[in-house]
Amino acid sequence: MGELSKQPNIGQVVEGQLCEIGITTLEQLKEIGSKQAWLKIRSIDSSACINRLLGLEGAIRGVRKTQLPEEIKAELREFYQSVKGNKD
Known about the structure:
This protein has 4 helices and no strands. It is an all-alpha fold. The chain is globular.
């Protein structure tokens, strides 16, 4: 396991996907942000869902996705729906 899988919400599969899109450190994940990282993951895995997006944001903040503030969850859900509406 690498550095990323030590973060909340990041298991081996998501860490592997992050590495595949060129993100290998928490600092890189923070720089790109959860939305852009998720979009890149979605380009290689069309099954990437809202939970993965919330998980990435939680990892950036160092908390479980369930502990994200409600306003952040709402913002990410709105973003997810806008992307989903454009692709599905």
